């Protein structure tokens, strides 16, 4: 987790403590990054255990869980095969998430990198409102992401993106595909 966070921080996708990662463990628990830590220099002390599907800490007192633990938990509940979640603020993705705030979804077509999101030629990515109360974002994700056919990524308006997969590497690959797609979307002026 620390190695991936360091990579994404170096790319400018997790500036100023932004971003969070988690991995599901056997037995219903998960490891998640603690809140407010630089993602460029995480150590074991910055990783906390939580109940995967509730997002509640397994040990109190302890370091505070990521402020977005409820979003990770919503994804673990919705997708039993989800083994890892990565949230970041990649610049092109965040710009597209701002432009699509009103629409509530953004549709990408034709670019080959769409296949990185498991689609063939068209993919519609949901955009959620960036409510100050994160559990409200999580509740909307739980309500809306009931379709297992959707892409394994979501946008949060004016905020960033969350990707998930069976492993951290798969979640990272999907986040990279989304950022590449958003960059192409903007370069070709498809707002
Ligand atoms: C740098 S502020 C960003 C936070 O508000 C949040 O969006 C974020 O990505 C990191 O939150 P965190 O609680 O450290 O996991
Ligand atoms: Zn964030």
UniProtKB/TrEMBL annotation:
PANTHER family: 3-OXO-TETRONATE 4-PHOSPHATE DECARBOXYLASE-RELATED, FUCULOSE PHOSPHATE ALDOLASE. Catalyzes the dehydration of methylthioribulose-1-phosphate (MTRu-1-P) into 2,3-diketo-5-methylthiopentyl-1-phosphate (DK-MTP-1-P). NCBIfam families: salvage_mtnB. It comes from the Bacteria. This is Methylthioribulose-1-phosphate dehydratase. Keywords: Amino-acid biosynthesis, Coiled coil, Lyase, Metal-binding, Methionine biosynthesis, Zinc. InterPro entries: Aldolase_class_II_sugar_metab, Aldolase_II/adducin_N, Aldolase_II/adducin_N_sf, MethylthioRu-1-P_deHdtase_MtnB. Belongs to the aldolase class II family. MtnB subfamily. Residues 1-186 form the Class II aldolase/adducin N-terminal domain. GO terms for molecular function: methylthioribulose 1-phosphate dehydratase activity. Pathway: Amino-acid biosynthesis; L-methionine biosynthesis via salvage pathway; L-methionine from S-methyl-5-thio-alpha-D-ribose 1-phosphate: step 2/6. Its EC number is 4.2.1.109. Zn(2+) binds at residues 87, 89. It catalyses: 5-(methylsulfanyl)-D-ribulose 1-phosphate = 5-methylsulfanyl-2,3-dioxopentyl phosphate + H2O. Residues 161-188 form a coiled coil. Binds 1 zinc ion per subunit. It is an enzyme of class 4 (lyase). Pfam families: Aldolase_II.
């Amino acid at each position: 987790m620390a190695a991936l966070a360091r990579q994404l921080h170096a790319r400018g996708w997790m500036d100023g403590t932004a971003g969070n990662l988690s991995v599901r463990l056997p037995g219903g628990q998960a490891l998640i990054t603690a809140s407010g830590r630089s993602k460029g220099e995480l150590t074991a002390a910055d990783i906390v255990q939580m109940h995967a599907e509730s997002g509640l800490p397994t040990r109190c007192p302890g370091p505070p869980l990521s402020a977005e633990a409820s979003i990770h938990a919503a994804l673990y509940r919705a997708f039993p095969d989800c083994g890892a979640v990565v949230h970041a603020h990649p610049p092109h993705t965040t710009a597209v998430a701002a432009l699509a705030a009103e629409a509530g979804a953004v549709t990408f077509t034709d670019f080959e990198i769409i296949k990185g999101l498991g689609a063939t030629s068209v993919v519609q990515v949901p955009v959620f409102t960036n409510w100050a109360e994160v559990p409200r974002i999580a509740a909307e994700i739980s309500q809306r992401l009931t379709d297992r056919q959707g892409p394994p990524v979501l946008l949060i308006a004016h905020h960033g993106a969350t990707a998930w997969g069976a492993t951290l590497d798969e979640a990272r690959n999907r986040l990279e595909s989304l950022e590449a797609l958003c960059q192409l979307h903007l370069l070709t002026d498809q707002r």
